Amino acid sequence: MAADGTAVIGGMDTHTDLHQAAVIDGIGRHLATEAFGTTPAGYQRLLDRLNSHGEVLAVGIEGTGAYGAEIARFLTANGIAIVEVDRPDRKARRDNGKSDPIDAYGAASAVLSGRAGGTPKARNGIVEAIRALRVVRRSAVKARTQKVNQIRTLIVTAPSGVRDKLRGLSTRDLIDTLARSRPAGELAGPACAVKIALRRLARRYQALSEEIKDADKEIGPLVTQAAPRLIALPGVGPETAGQLLASAGDNPGRLRSEAAFAHLCGAAPVPASSGRTNRHRLNRGGDRAANNALHTVVLVRMKYDRRTQEYVARRTAQGMAKKDIVRCLKRFVVREIYRHLPHVTHTTEPLLQTA
Known about the structure:
Oligomer: single chain
Radius of gyration: 26 Å
Order of helices and strands: EEEHEHEHHHHHHHHHEEHHH
Helix content: 55-70%
Number of strands: 7
Structural class: alpha/beta
Strand order of the largest sheet: 3-2-1-4-5
Distance between the termini: 61 Å
Number of helices: 14
Shape: globular
């Protein structure tokens, strides 16, 4: 056991059944490495072992959004500062090797050196509930799209007697027609088999639509409760607001500024200048789901919001391409949304929406 008053830092490589933990002192010397079970008893034993080496300054955890979510919640509830650690890059893995103890020690060293300093999402409030419900809704939307694609593919290859009756129908009329159909004939015949398959797919489509409606009824009030000022912004609906809240987490104060939020959403401008050309390009990094939500907000505002329409007209007259206009609008929207996230300290800088 270390002497009283020793300051130590922990590191953790997380997995399904076992978490590998390492402890180092203030100058990086290795003190201990041990595996702990992913159970309440294992978490308590891990906490006791960390405290037995001295004062725990912080614990770096790899995978706080996956296998390490619960241990991060447990340690935070017990007053331990948690630092989110990214996976080592390929060069570091080649140089140092790969094993659970090595990764745990690397996580602790990253905290000590300052390479890792991010605050993980709290995942203990209403935003986490919204995120969980949105996972189910998103999978239902994806499955419903797959069903209508399968229906149209079957229609393309169906016998002409089936195909001609369904030609030119909208998606809604097509689903209603197929769901009400009563196929008859020999199952061994292609026409009858296709009709049965189409009816089953249509009914599955309807079931998924009902599931999506139920999810919307659950998610909408939660989003309004979590961020009423955000949902009131032009072009921001429950779906986009839910995604942006999920990206920020239950503790959006972990984002140091609206510029950090822009980086998180992949909306920070990236320099793309060369020679006499001075410009920026779209950012391909960040949370792509959050970036997609911003894109949706921008498209809605371009169609219905007068301020945005005036901005687009002015920038178009200046010779700016549409994709660059959208990039600028995303950055402006991020600034406005950041100020309406719950529990964020706002500044008094003017918005650039009318710049």
